[in-house]
Amino acid sequence: MASYKLVTYAGAEGPRAGVVIGEQVCDAAGLTGHGADRTVLGVLADWEAAQERLATAAKALSAGQPLAATRLLAPVLWPSAIYCAGANYADHAAEMARAGGREPEPDPHTLGLKPWHFLKAGRSTLAATGDTVRITGLSKTMDWEIELAAVIGRAAKDVPLDRALDHVAGYTIANDLSARDMGRRPNVPDTAPFKFDWVGHKNFDGSCPLGPWIVPSHDIPDPQKLGLKLWVNDVIKQDSNTSLMIFTVAEQIAHLSSRITLQPGDVILTGTPAGVGAARPEFLKAGDEVRLWIENIGTLTNRMA
């Protein structure tokens, strides 16, 4: 198949699905002549056929607009759910245990455990590359977390492990911004089962920068062999590889699909490696620029305000 990247861009009449080929952005529906391709959710809902349409159209590229002059939005508007893997890199789990004065946990596989996920809201949390994210007044301990994000392209229910990746349309980059000081409810005993506040910790406007585009899965045959790095103000903070995940992308999809049907356009954030601010401790402040890079995907950049 011809290589391309799938984006949502700001068109003259609102968000449109686009195809990035080289340094050009072409309107997806304009390329394929298929009306449903005007949105990325429309493309993903018909992914089996749409990827063939887009690849064919990419070979016969018509004139587009310069990528540098195009405003990219979050690539999926709007996912029905954003699932986020917790403690899915052993080095990150170990650094958080040290920060909390706990002994590191053994590999969850040895305990018969399954992947563990929480949710981010599917709309208000999203931010696009280049967006400014307001953190002042929300948290005094705002943290960064680079994550490989898998975008579902085929509905998945009770899928076996060896077929799980067949349900992925492609991959993008996410920053799972975390308000660390909002994760525990005040005036609730530490031993209470209601102590933790995952909405306050992980859900606020702009808490899930996503992008800049979706790279189709046929261009990333093995999501467990990707370098990933994060910088704050050009100082590297995270430098790792997806090979260090505890539960693979396939394991996460298989497990989630045993609980609930994954829908086209759903996004799975697959965990973050060591190097987060809470382990230093060091946190984001207004004016900071956060830049994320994942091998074979690209770069996502946001400024804090």
Describe the structure.
- With 305 residues, the chain is an alpha+beta fold.
- It has 2 domains: 5-73, no CATH class; 82-304, Alpha-Beta Complex (Fumarylacetoacetate hydrolase, domain 2), CATH 3.90.850.
- Helices cover 16% and strands 30% of the residues.
- It is built from 6 helices and 19 strands.
- The strands form 4 sheets. A 7-stranded mixed sheet has the order 7-6-17-11-12-14-8.
- The longest helix has 13 residues, at 47-59.
- It starts with a strand and ends with a strand.
- The mean pLDDT is 94.
Write the layout of secondary structure elements.
Layout: E1 5-11, E2 14-21, E3 24-27, H1 28-32, H2 40-45, H3 47-59, E4 65-66, E5 72-73, E6 82-85, H4 90-99, E7 117-120, E8 126-127, E9 132-133, E10 142-143, E11 146-152, E12 168-175, E13 178-179, H5 198-202, E14 208-216, E15 227-232, E16 235-241, H6 249-259, E17 267-269, E18 289-294, E19 298-304
Parallel strand pairs: 6-17, 8-14, 9-19
Antiparallel strand pairs: 1-2, 1-5, 2-3, 3-4, 6-7, 10-13, 11-12, 11-17, 12-14, 15-16, 15-18, 18-19
Q: Tell me how many strands there are.
A: 19
CATH architecture of the largest domain: Alpha-Beta Complex
The first-level CATH class of the largest domain is given as Alpha Beta
Q: Helical amount among residues, as a percent range?
A: 10-25%
Separation of termini?
Answer: 41 Å
CATH superfamily of the largest domain: Fumarylacetoacetase-like, C-terminal domain
Number of domains: 2
Q: Characterize the main sheet.
A: 7 strands, mixed
Structural class by secondary-structure content: alpha+beta
- Over all CA atoms, what is the radius of gyration? 19 Å
Task: Tell me the β content.
Answer: 25-35%
Q: Point out poorly predicted stretches.
A: none
Helix count equals: 6
Order of helices and strands: EEEHHHEEEHEEEEEEEHEEEHEEE
